Amino acid sequence: MWRGERERLGARTGPPAQQPGHGIDPGTKKNWVPASKQAVTVSYFYDVTRNSYRIISVDGAKVIINSTITPNMTFTKTSQKFGQWADSRANTVFGLGFSTEQQLTKFAEKFQEVKEAARLARDKSQDKTETSSDHSQESGCETPPSAQASSVNGTDDEKASHAGPADTFLQSENNKLKMALTQSAANVKKWETELQTLRESNARLSSALQESAASAEQWKRQLALCRDENDRLRNKIDQLDEQCGEINREKEKNSQLKRRIEELELELQEKETELKDLRKQSEIIPQLMSQCDYVSEKLEAAERDNQNLEDKVRSLKSDMEESKYRQRRLKEGLKNSLEVLDGKIDGLQDLRRGLSRLGSDS
């Protein structure tokens, strides 16, 4: 059973051209191989037994993405809504299309986090391997001195002095090994329990997949039946649509004929009304003729009066012009008289001032 954090991004696999796609075709190295025609769930999983991270995507009962993430992988954004990465183990380039740019950014950030976790897991595994190899090398290096100490010539005290530290060191190493073995046995039991759990989970998943496959087959049959029924209903609907179209056309023709009849009836009524008016007018035509003659006589008399008035107006205009000319002449004479009078008044005033000065002098 896979364990880890799952990201439901609603992404669909596809190239930047918005066509469904999953991986680069290994034959052409250019074309995208279609994988899904609808949005699928893309998940990150952690495999405890292999200490590795994977990207998994399942469409129904079909696994469309199963890629192991390594520290050397790179997720590349080729557009605002599309990204891809290369899996050298599967010899495939995987691509994912997203509905929004935020989903693509979120997936890329999670990819970087999982890649860093994979690197840490690899480093941790290497450290464990180096530690175990160091322990084995130390054990191999310490064994010869103990053997050498047992074969060196000398007294018992000297032998005891040489053998004591080596035995203590070996005893401590044995204790460490016993603890490691105990821990390993406990880990083995735990791993066996987890393996059994994984097997049971895989069995349940297999049965679920089988049930899903059976359900899918049943759904396919039902879908085929529904399609046949749908086609039959569509044909019937098309026939009914044609019949309804003919009925509607006939109704339209009838409505057009009714409107035309109504228009003709209205025109007939208008013509009859006009005819009645003309008959009434024909009855009063003699009266109108006599009135016309009378009006004509009045018009001629009015024209004669108008001519006389025009003659009078012309004579009055000539009289007005002559009167205006006379007024201008009078105004000019009056102006000259006023100028002469002003001069005489000025002379009289000068004479009065002179007489006043003479009076004052005398």
Give structural notes.
Keywords: Coiled coil, Cytoplasm, Synapse. It holds the Pfam family WH1. Residues 1-10, 118-137 have a biased composition (Basic and acidic residues). With 362 residues, this protein is mainly alpha-helical. 71% of the residues lie in helices and 11% in strands. It contains 3 helices and 8 strands. It has helices spanning 101-151, 156-283, 285-361; strands at 23-24, 32-33, 42-47, 52-59, 62-69, 76-77, 82-87, 92-97. The strands form 3 sheets. Strands 3-4-5 form a 3-stranded antiparallel beta sheet. It has a 3-stranded antiparallel beta sheet with strand order 6-7-8, covered by helices on one side. A hairpin with a 4-residue loop joins strand 6 (76-77) and strand 7 (82-87). Helix 1 (101-151) runs antiparallel to helix 2 (156-283). It is elongated and about 175 Å long. The N and C termini lie far apart (158 Å). Residues 1-22 and 136-163 have low confidence and may be disordered.
Please state the average pLDDT score: 76
Tell me the strand order in the biggest sheet. Answer: 3-4-5
β-strand number? 8
Written as H for each helix and E for each strand, in order along the chain, the element string is EEEEEEEEHHH
Structural class, please?
Answer: mainly alpha
Shape: elongated
InterPro entries: Homer, Homer_EVH1, PH-like_dom_sf, WH1/EVH1_dom
Keywords: Coiled coil, Cytoplasm, Synapse
Main location: cytoplasm
Protein name: Homer protein homolog 2 isoform X1
